[in-house]
Amino acid sequence: MELPEMDAMASAIGVSVPVLRFLLCFVVTIPISFLHRFVPGGPTVLHFYAAATGAILSYLSFGFSSNLHFVVPMLLGYVSMALCRNYCGIITFFLAFGYLIGCHVYYMSGDAWKEGGIDAKVL
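and the corresponding structure tokens:
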């Protein structure tokens, strides 16, 4: 999603192109979430709509690798629900944030942010 106009738009508002892509996708979530109530079908169709639009917006904002990073916390949540339903919230909280902190340390996301970049692990 690298259009020639994005450079001009990004410089006009004083941000980098990756940050502009994130902001545009963030704004697009409003109409997408509004359309969620009009999706016909049962819960399975609604879950697919939410997963598909989330994956597409994540891809447009951060690239393919961000979707892979979202899989780990989701799997941790589902495994904790399957193994220990009573404590799945607290287990998922600590494991997912542990993974997030590990990604921050490994990728040094703060350095990328200072250089004008943005990635999914910053959020």
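(Above: one complete record from the training split.) The CA atoms of residues 17 and 110 lie 17 Å apart.
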